[in-house]
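Render this sequence as a predicted structure.
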Amino acid sequence: MFETLMITFREGLEAFLVVAIALAYLSKTGGEKLIPSVRHACVVAVVGCAALGVVMARVGALTPFWEGTLALTAAIFVISCTTHMIKMGKHMKREITSLIDRAVQNPSDSAKFAVFIVVLLMIGREGLEAATMIASLAQGTDSTSLAIGGILGLTIAGLVAWAWSKYGHRINLSLFFKVTSAFMVIFSIQLAIYAFHEFTESAEIAKLGIIDNAYWHAATEPWGPQGEIGAWITYSLVLVPLAFLIVGFLKDRNSTRMTAST
């Protein structure tokens, strides 16, 4: 449940921020007539990504090979997501507004469609990443825990995005992204280990004769979610982001005190 909460919080926060920035920018620049296109893009992205997640979860449950493939794909998405946010997080608003500017420069008949596509692609990217990661988690987690974690994560993300839109100067989004990036890196390692472990059970890999499946299956057993080392990796999903959050909070408080004293 915690993994799902963190995933939906991270991806949901990015998606909510995209929507908040797009709506605010259109309102300030006289593009109110294009706002319905943003809303329609949100609906299509959510429905499409949810449907894709269900399909991937069912495919992943077929054989260890597909389960491993799904986990490896999710790990790749996690790394790409984290790398993208580290590079572009500070420039998110500028990136979104520049894309909308280019979209609305189209002829009036196609401006709505252009804004719809821009927002759909930006939100869809986050939704696709979340759907892939959650589909991988679905192989070893009951649906109730996934649902609770997803609802909590999206709720928190929505509240943070709302707070940012109202009190942006007081919300340290950089700290949020640092904390969730720490989680994502550890989670990607866990996914990669899980993918390799599932591949060692795969008949397709065994036929290739590339590795000694029996040996590597036994060797990676302690690293799995139920193993001793795997358990500590799971604990670190909580402890490491918490440490980042505490350190970041203390730094912010010290900098605020120093500013006030000067």
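Summary. The mean pLDDT is 75. DSSP finds ten helices and no strands in the chain.
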